[in-house]
Amino acid sequence: MPASPPAPSQPTISIASSDPLAHLSRTLAQHQTHLVRLYASLGHADPQTCAANKISDLHVGILDTIEAQAKEAEKEVAQLTHAVAQLTEQIRQLSIRLGHRDLEAQLEIPAEALVPKLQRIQNILNDLSQTKFDREILVENLLRRLESFAPILGDQFIQDAVTKSNQSLRIGQMFGANLSTEYISRLEKQSQEFELEVSRRAQLLLEHINEIFNLWGHLGISPASPSANPTEDHSDIDPIVLAHLGFKDVAVTVNGDIKPIGHCESVKMLPTTTNLEKVRARQTWLDAERQKREEQIQTWYDELCVLWARLGVPEDEQEQFVESWRGLSEQCVEGYEAELKRMVEAKKEHMVLFVQKERDSIIELWDQMYVAENERANVSIMYSDDYSEELLASHEKLKVQLLDDLSDKKVLLNLLNKYFTLLQEAHELEVAEKDPNRYAKGKRGDPGRLLREEKIRKRVTKEKPKLENDLKTLIPEWENERGRPFMVNGSRFLEDLVIRLEQEAALKTQASGGHITLCVALQIDDTPSPTGEATTDGKHIAARLACEADADGRDDAVEGSGGKRGDTGECESVRDGVRDAASGLEGGQHNLHHDGDPAAAAEAGAADDRRQLRPGPRPSPLRPPPPAPLSLIHPNHPPPSPPDPPHPADGDHHLPAQSAGQSRVVSGSSDASALDQPVTSFIDLQDHHQPSHQHQPLGMEGPNTLEVLQLDPIP
Questions:
Q1: How sure is the predictor about 505, in pLDDT bands with cuts at 50, 70 and 90?
Q2: Which sign, positive or negative, has the C-alpha torsion 176, 179, 185, 186?
Q3: What is the pTM assigned to this prediction?
Q4: What are the backbone angles phi and psi of residue 388, rounded to the nearest 5°?
Q5: Engineered SS bond to 701: which of 148, 404, 436, 611, CB 3.0-4.6 Å?
Q6: Measured between alpha carbons, how far is 290 from 486 in angstroms, rounded to an integer?
């Protein structure tokens, strides 16, 4: 058998080419050529076709490999892209939970490859995960602390606080919660607020317990003793309070002191809302009970003080009773109640004395307000003899009304009392000045009397007009505001004051001159003589001697006294002369100007009778009557000449010497414009003092009021 020809050698394919596609193309061409030679050597009829078929199969395999490689690469790209997207979403969610709003810009970098991007994002995610882990632990601890306050503050209180940040109460549900720094800060703040709230409630609970403990002592309540009505007085909390204090019981003394009895392990009360409400309700009831007992005891004590004072209970016994019943226990309340009942019974036994005492107080108030007798007589309770509680209450009510009225009139009554005091001083001064023996020779008196009288005179002159003006101003205002008159002794004081001031003004209009003059005024009076015998024609003739001071206020007795207050010799001479003249008048000489003319004398006597029928001015109530003018001085009469000194030999007192043509006593005038000021003293020629209010004002009764008395010089 002949040997076959040797097969052509396979071309070597090198992969170490710089251009894989060109190398592959050359390799495929060489391979196709080599296959043709091989098939030709094998004896195939068409080696080209066989080689082409093989090359076609090789092309399909290459395409499959290329496609497989492409798919594998695409799958890897898709996986990396998905991983990057997942990590980015995780980072975005964590950034929201952690409150990192600035990470969005760091996630996207333009034209960044997937592998480095994946690595960078993975690093960011790792950092956020560590932060998340740390914050979860912190939030867990904070929530556990908040839950620890639930037994005191209540679940709802904690729930409301936690859900403010959209968080649930249970810790197992909180891992998807907000982990931002703001939320953690809020939880920390709430934890601090809860601590403060618990501390506040604990302090409030302690205050309530201490107050309850003190009220036990004040009210004398034993907390271990069961109450008859615990639902009303909330005493069911007392044993719990005792256990909190660590006492088995307490002993309350009569004075309200508390002493613990036995000790036990303290079971502290939690300052829960329920416990606080219970202790608050218990304290409120105890406070109300304390206030009620205090008011009751104070009311009874006030009544007892009045009864003790009325019954004359000694102060040491009163103090002993108060000391014996200190505190607010039920025993103290019963003690005061029993004492009040005892005093009320004693009061009923002495009702007459109580009523009389109130009547004395009412009379004193009447006196202070110048209530008239007819008004007093209209108060029927003052004369009732039915001594009962109602009568005493009526007196007390009237007394309160009078006190209110006195308070309302206080200002006016003060002015009125000052005014009456001034009038009384002026009246006493007038009476003293009318004393005929005031300057009697050899009579010893008070050396400071004249000085005091001068001070009184000045005070009356200064203060009296001011008080009158104040009264005339304030009384109308008071009457207009009250709608009723201001009464004094049954009459309207303002009218009496106006009448008095009009009388004084009328007397002042009669004033004239500023010199010193002596005059004798004869006044016909129906009053019998002091001896009881009727005077000539049934008329009592009185002559008044006036020693009138000059206008500038000097009050020397007579110009003839030598300018000295103490020298009264000349005044005595004048009095002696006037008395002699009056003695001659008692023989029936009613009018010296009509001597020898019976018809004129009869007409003058009739005028005197008519004058005496006219009533005088009505005196004001409770005030001294206004002084009547005591002399009338003719304005044209010249002043007397300086007096001669008394003769030392005979010691008699004579009238001062007169210049030629001058009379010592001048006639009066019926003309009101010719009247001088009223004088301050007079001498009754009959040695009989008539009260000043019985004399009619001279010079105002028409003609023939004054009789002219002409005295010849005394040798």
A1: confident
A2: negative
A3: 0.44
A4: -135, 175
A5: 611
A6: 50
